[in-house]
Structures are given as C-alpha cells and as structure tokens.
Amino acid sequence: MTEPADLHDPTTTEFWAAARDGRLIVQCCAACGHHQLYPRPFCMACDSPKPAWAECSGVGTVYSCVQVLLPVHEELPPPYTSGLVELEVGPRLLGRLPAGTVIGDRVVARWRPDGTERPILYFDHVSGEGADGPVGRRPAAGSAGRTGTAAGEAAS
Questions:
Q1: What pTM did the predictor assign?
Q2: Dmax (CA) of the chain
Q3: Where is 74: in which H helix or E strand?
Q4: Which of 152, 151, 108, 146 is nearest to 130 (CA)?
Q5: 83, 63 Cβ separation under 8 angstroms
Q6: Alpha-carbon span 42 to 126, nearest angstrom
Q7: How far apart are CA 25 and CA 5, in angstroms?
Q8: Can you tell me whether residue 20 is helix, strand or coil?
Q9: How many helices (H) and strands (E) in the chain?
Q10: Which residue numbers delimit the ChsH2 C-terminal OB-fold domain (predicted)?
C-alpha cells in the first residue's frame, strides 16, 4: 500500500494547508503564466524559480476514468470511480468521481476531510450537468474505448 504524501515537504506545505481549508490552489509562473501541479520549486515551462500559488475554481473536464472493482487500500472499499481531470487552467489531477461519470463530463473539485491532515480530492458534476444531463464533450454513442465504463458495462 502507498503511504500518504509528505505533508511537511516545504514544496507542498501551502498546497495541503489550502486543501484543509477546502481550497484548490495551483502554482502559476509570473514569468510565463504557466499553471502547474504537482508543486515544484521552479516552473516546468520556462524554468523560472519559485512559481506563486493561485487559487483556481477546480472546474475541469474528465480526461480519463475507471471504475475500481478490487480493493487497493482498506480505507477505499470498492466499487468507486477514479479519474484524471484536466482543469480549465491546465493541470490534470487524479481524484474520486461520481458513479456514472464518463470521459468529457464537466466536474468541479471538492476537498473532503478524511480525519487526518490530508483531505481527499473528490469531483462532483458541474451544477446542472451529470451522467443523465447535458455535459461538455460527452462521447458520441458507439465511440469505443473512450467511454470510461468498466468492462461489461454498457457504454452511454
């Protein structure tokens, strides 16, 4: 099993403090405007030192998702949906997704406390959108391999 992220790493301290306050922050480079996450002491686009932190809306589009059917940790009982979300500001984040989520759904990040110093990142469908409602770029019926459904499930 994997151990939790190091909450006391100076590069990630601000990120986890914001997460405990329910805010999602990403690094933004003053020199080139590039947004990045995982935190680093330099900009990945231009190598400028010390990118600043910027709060973001957490709104993004599901880039990839999968339904987890086997346990990977005793605190994460299956089934649940996990996925990679591309934020409007650019970085992609892993997090838990609502059941029925498919690639292209519009979602918003939410932090949920887990009883430790490290909250868990969840995504909810953007208000008025979801598995049964209108979504951003939902795949067309029959677009094999890009539905985000588990094996044996019918694609939408």
A1: 0.75
A2: 48
A3: none
A4: 108
A5: yes
A6: 32
A7: 16
A8: helix
A9: 1, 8
A10: 53-112
